[in-house]
Amino acid sequence: MYLQVDDIHKLNVYAKGNKNGVPVIFLHGGPGGNVDEKCEMFFDFKKHFVIFFDQRGCGKSIPFAEIKNNNIDNLVEDIEKIRKYY
User: What is the dihedral of CA 22, 28, 65, 5, to 10 degrees?
Assistant: First the structure.
């Protein structure tokens, strides 16, 4: 699914696992990283509820490689928006 976080950025976000389990927000590496199936190998989905997302300008997030409105403050705000959504 896509989560609109400002006028131009939509983040590719998905969650997997036990909604009553330990909550985790997974942050991929960078610059320019992304989430994929390999990221899932770190978790026991019977015990964890994991939210995966491609950060601004990365992976399947839209627009790809966009640096406008893409700074550490915005990235932290995105995590909070994702947390509140789930």
Answer: 20
